[in-house]
Design a protein that fits this description.
alpha/beta; four-stranded parallel sheet
Length: about 290
């Protein structure tokens, strides 16, 4: 077990007069661990167990130069006793940026693939095994069947009755897990942070099948809250983020969480939910 984990993560109500009779609770997964916040720990939990059960002592994964998944894998390996290898998209640049410097400080070995080769990274596994020997392979972003199982456990932590649960969506693993853990009368709504993310519907369903043998129909994606695409923002989003902090002392991380929170307020304003609906917003951190 990783030391210092805060589980279950806190659930706090966000009281705001703009919510028009709808209750919103924040599931503060960003507070689970300073180095493994939010869905990062949930995704890695069963992967670490599987790696150990299979006799691996090394984790290898992929990511960009600012990848929080790379950081989290390095931290998990450090605390759980695994060697870690991060295969980074693009060329090496020195000095290392803070994300990669942190990963190295936690013992991660960095390797680099040019962008063309990186796009075909699935075909590189044999070569990587020749170079590094045996390893447990984690996909980019960490979303696989084990990650889905870990994320599904979030729902059981919620002691407050609720109707709808929102989460930001990157690769789809968190959404797949949360939807798999819901009761029949509950719904999950995902807010992709990428532009043109309709393809994720198929990927989320496939992840559910891999993890639990079936896909559920109790979820949907809201595709119009990406604000230009991954890691992009607009003055409207910045104003919303600033206002939320001013009102509640809670500043959502802008790449993922702020877009999800904006979607909730916008949907409530549009009358998408009946009065007395209870919504849980999963604050995944980054």
């Amino acid at each position: 077990m990783i030391p210092g984990l805060l589980l279950p993560s806190p659930l706090v109500e966000l009281e705001d007069d703009r919510l028009s009779g709808v209750r919103v609770f924040l599931k503060r997964d960003d507070l689970i661990h300073p180095e493994l916040p939010g869905n990062k720990w949930r995704k890695l939990k069963y992967n670490l167990a599987a790696a150990g059960d299979q006799g691996h002592d090394t984790l290898l994964t992929f990511g960009g130069a600012y990848s929080n998944h790379i950081r989290a894998t390095a931290a998990a390996g450090y605390y759980a006793g695994f060697h870690t290898i991060g295969v980074i998209r693009g060329e090496e640049h020195l000095p290392l940026n803070p994300s990669l410097a942190y990963a190295v400080s936690r013992g991660m070995h960095l390797s680099y693939l040019d962008r063309t080769t990186y796009r075909a990274k699935a075909s590189q596994e044999a070569r990587l095994r020749e170079e590094f020997g045996d390893f447990y392979l984690l996909p980019e972003g960490g979303s696989n069947a084990e990650a889905v199982r870990g994320c599904s456990e979030l729902v059981a932590e919620l002691q407050e009755p609720f109707d709808v649960i929102f989460c930001a969506v990157g690769t789809g693993g968190t959404m797949a897990g949360i939807a798999s853990g819901l009761a029949e009368n509950q719904q999950a709504i995902g807010v992709p942070v990428l532009k043109g993310a309709g393809y994720l519907e198929k990927e989320i369903a496939e992840l559910q099948i891999q993890a639990f043998g079936r896909a559920t129909s109790n979820w949907k994606l809201e595709l119009d809250y990406h604000f230009g695409g991954y890691a992009k923002r607009t003055p409207k989003l910045d104003h919303f983020t600033d206002d939320l902090e001013a009102r509640h002392g809670f500043r959502p991380e802008w790449v993922y969480v702020a877009k999800m929170m904006y979607a909730i307020f916008d949907q409530v304003e549009q009358g998408a939910f009946p009065c007395n609906t209870t919504i849980v917003a999963v604050v995944t951190g980054t």
